[in-house]
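Incident log, structure service

09:12 report received: a user says their structure output differs between two submissions of the same chain.
09:20 pulled the input from the user's history:
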Amino acid sequence: MTWFLMALSLALTPDAAEPSVAASPGAPIAGWYSEHVEYMTRDGGRWEASNAEHRSDDEPFETYVVIFSPVFGGTGMSGRLFGINDGEDSVDFWQFRGYWDPANAIGRLEQFGWGGAVGRGDIAPEDDHLLAVQEFLAPGAPPRIEKHEFVVIDADTHITPTYRIEPDGTQTPGRSYTWRRVR
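09:34 re-ran on a clean worker, output below:
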């Protein structure tokens, strides 16, 4: 029993409880990521997309709205997505957090949604657009992987095609929305 108490004492010493210090400095925020945050949050960060193509009794929203706000001096952003029906805002469907991960030199995107769903993954440049690949988890549901492209059309318009990535690697196209900045 004495050896156990000595081992426990060593394990609980302040030095053992201290987090390790990184051996190298964190990666600086990439220019593409800073530009992305500026683009999304500029002029109030409000973007709207028509939902006319998908509107139904189960999905009555005429328009979807996402509002992004800069955080931490513009090094990241938070956001919320909701719908508008008959001029009334819905509850938030998703809340977002985008940030630069200096330990891994990559942009991160996390979303928290209705029913306890969580999406998390990386965002990075690919060819002429940005690409986010996220794993989505929800209570009682199997995980799924989705790819979201972010394609800038002009200073006030971008599109977001989505794809579900199947376990065998096949990509099934999902919805695509055209988002317009609202000032």
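09:41 both user submissions now match this output. Likely a transient worker issue. Closing.
09:42 reviewer note: The first strand starts at residue 46 and ends at 50. The radius of gyration is 21 Å.
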